[in-house]
Write a structure and sequence with these properties.
single chain; two-stranded antiparallel sheet; 2 strands
C-alpha cells in the first residue's frame, strides 16, 4: 500500500501530478494573480491529504505495536489502547515521518515505527502530567 499522495491537478489543458505542481508553484511557475487563490486551495488539499495518509499509517503502526486488549494483563493493555487511540491530530508522528522522507517516499517502515514511538511518548507524558496533578 503506497502512502504517496497521487492526486493530479488540472493546469490549463493538461493534468500535472500534484507534487510536481506544488514544486512548480513554490519555484514561481504559478505567479499569475489569477492562479494564486486556486494554487493555495490545491496546496491546502494536498497537505490535508498527506496528513490524513500519514495519520492512517501512524494508527496502523500503533495498532501493530501496542498489545491487544485480550492479552494479559488485560487491564493494562486495555488502558494503554484506550489512551493511545482516544483521538488526536497525530501531528507529532506526521512531522516525524515527513522529516524522514526522501522525495515523498517513506523509508521502509522505519519512519512509521519512529512516528508511532513519538506518539506513545507523547501519550505517556499526558498521562504522567495528569496523574502528577491529581494528588494536588
Amino acid at each position: 500500500m503506497s502512502s504517496e499522495v497521487t492526486s493530479s491537478v488540472q493546469h490549463g489543458q493538461r493534468s500535472v501530478p500534484a507534487m510536481q505542481f506544488a514544486e512548480r508553484l513554490i519555484t514561481g511557475f504559478c505567479r499569475s494573480e489569477a492562479l494564486h487563490v486556486p494554487c493555495l486551495a490545491i496546496l491546502a488539499r494536498m497537505l490535508t491529504d498527506r496528513v490524513r495518509a500519514r495519520r492512517s499509517l501512524t494508527d496502523a503502526a500503533l495498532d501493530r505495536l501496542i498489545p491487544l486488549e485480550t492479552q494479559h494483563p488485560l487491564s493494562i493493555h486495555k488502558a494503554m489502547r484506550h489512551s493511545v487511540f482516544a483521538g488526536g491530530k497525530r501531528l507529532r508522528p506526521v512531522l516525524c515521518m515527513e522529516a524522514g522522507t526522501d522525495g515523498g517516499r517513506l523509508a521502509a517502515g522505519r519512519n512509521r515505527r519512529t512516528g508511532a514511538a513519538v506518539e506513545m511518548l507523547h501519550t505517556y507524558s499526558l498521562i504522567h502530567d495528569g496523574s502528577s496533578c491529581a494528588g494536588q
